[in-house]
Request: fold
Amino acid sequence: MATSQEACYLTLLGLAEEFRTMNPPNIRNCIQCLLAIFNLKPPPKMEVKTHLQLGNILLQFTKNTDLAQSHLEKAWYRSQTITGFDDVKFETASVLGDLYEKKGQTAFAKQLLSKAVDISQQSVFWHCRLLFQLAQIYANEKDYVSSSSLLGVGADYANLSGAQYTRILFLLSKGMLLMIDKKLTEVHQVLTLAGQLVEAWQGSTQQKEALKVFFLVLQVCHYLTAGQVKSVKPCLKQLQQGIQTITSLHTDEELMPANPGDMFQWMPKEHMCVLVYLVTVLHSMQAGYMDKAQKYTDKALMQIEKLKMVDSHPILHSFQLLLLEHIAMCRLVMGNKTVSIQETAQALQICRQEPRLLARHYSQIHTLLGLYAMSVNCMEAAEAQFGVVLRSNAATELRILASLNLAIVYLRCRKEKELSELLARLNPEALPSGSHSLRAAAYYVHGLNAFFQARYNDAKRYLRETLKMANGEDLNRLTSCSLVLLGHIFYSLGNNRESTNMVTPAMQLASKIPDVHVQLWASALLKDLYRLCGDRLREQEAVHTHSNFSQLLLKDHFQASQLAEHHLIQWVKGDPPALPIPSSSASTSLL
Reply:
């Protein structure tokens, strides 16, 4: 009888697999075959495994998550009475925990995974995997303390289990969370240890190079968050060389790790390539190399589209979103508002499809809309957008960026009371951020305010601080803005020679970036300076240059204001609009 039952079971399993692997798959028949197994009253292990298979198939091929959950819960509860059977038991816990989280039932997910972690200590692979998964849930909830603690437990366990590669993965993951949580002293300690372990690692080349890339990505991001664009260059170069090494390795030749606890992969090499493109874009944008940022964005987006055709992994959507957000800012600097607002709308569309991404990028999207509204002279809309950011739970650096731009909006709208109150909170010496570039930008905004108030000595003092900091870290855009404003100050004071000495290099630097708005400003000053010194030839060149930039910006401004996406600047509350909202109030004038 047992042999006959086993034969029936194997037959039904074989049929289910045949239906599943058909082209196209016949999932209805596959599920019916698996359900038929329960009529045979199978032994406990067979029953649990079948419930797990049904749960996985329902999740992969259908939208019936409730039925999938029911099968997975039966598999989990019935597996508790079975000794051993670790792979099925803990795979069930992992899949069910993931489903609970996706359905917003994070308390259930944490409870389930915590129990699975407690009873999996004899299974190195599953214990490590479940620790990673539970830490990720806490990180998603922004409980970085609990998440870091779990990763620390994982690092110690992996070390005791002889899984040194996974120990380093735990440490690097912990370092990443500590960076997000601004625990900079602990970051230094963890990354120093991780760096030493990476260098000493004697395992496979593929794993060693992947660990190096993870380590270097964290180092580069650490520098960029601090606004240290020049200091980061050696790390960024090492990172770019590291990814070239990884892409040249033949993965087919890689051996399976000897320790089952080391059977993890931080990220597929194709995803690593996109990530390295992304951090290169971040560096190029901060350094003021907009052409380079555009070049690497195009490469990264093309790679993402290729990868999405094979497997649309959620991380690719995150990468795409970050790239669109940064390139949209670059377009504004380059004077291409039309493409910028289209890319912002594209980023918003990605967020609409994934609520988790919208929650994470809500403030960034409103910041982009505020910057765009400023560029098209819709100051009320810009003020409203930056207000949304400041009322949100945005990161400190993003709030400061929004505040600095809001200060410029107040300056242009002559809202002196609001400006005075805001600038009092934007003291460069007491900014609640360690970012070098944001401090330099705060000095610039104070200098701009002093210039508008004709306090020229104060303005020069602030701008010299900006220049000193900007030159120290190759912040080219801040350098060009400060030089042209200093040139304007000297022009207002009647010191034409000194003004020319400032504006000329500002124009040259702005051309390299390229920053069309600084070029427009500089060419306006140069045509007056050359006229005053009687240099007719250069005056005519400056007049021609200024006219070209003016026409370019006016044409682009008109095109942008005609787009449906332009009306997104009116969105300040509620769910993002599926289609841009028509509006008749948007201004179309240009400063």
Remarks:
- Confidence is low (pLDDT under 50) at residues 580-591.
- The longest helix spans residues 536-562.
- The radius of gyration is 29 Å.
- Residues 97 and 111 are 9 Å apart (CA to CA).
